[in-house]
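WARN no homologs supplied; continuing
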Amino acid sequence: MSSEPTSVRRRPRADAARNRERLVEAARAAFTSDGEDTSLEGIARAAGVGIGTLYRAFPTREDLIAAVYRAELDAALDTVDDLLRSASTGARALRAFCGRYAEFVATKRGLAETVRVGALRGAAEAAGTRDRVNAAVQRFLDTGATDGSLRHDLLADDVTAALIGILLSTRDTTDAEQTGRLLDILLAGLSRSPARTA
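OK structure emitted
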């Protein structure tokens, strides 16, 4: 049995985890800003590690893409509890989530420019994206139905589909405010009108 202190034995694993996190963050920024021009060497430099460290953590470019995709999806979905606590209504919480999800999709577009579409689709399927987003949306719908800010007849997958439709239709727009306006229109359609709440 080794007499080496536990903290010393675990250090390489902790270092590897930190390196992985730095690589994912550097890759996210690079893929979003540079698209297909992103180099793995540049990502490694930005993360403060060598290219060998990058390849040990992510043997292929697609592995790195998948890790960035999962991290961004997790970050978007991790906002759900905070939004439900801080927003005054389920409708307001859902609108804030739609904005956060739009940011995730913007990152995803940068990823799509760097790999085959099939590779990104595989990452999305592996992450269970649609099911996880539907589950998050359902929480907002349940809260909004309870507090009276959202209609009772809404299906989570319909809302998700409408959200995705907006984000796809505005991906090439030069109007920076258009996505927000369309999300506001979507939420207006999901909200209960004064006549329906009377």
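Residues 61-197 form a domain with the Tetracycline Repressor; domain 2 fold (CATH 1.10.357.10).
OK
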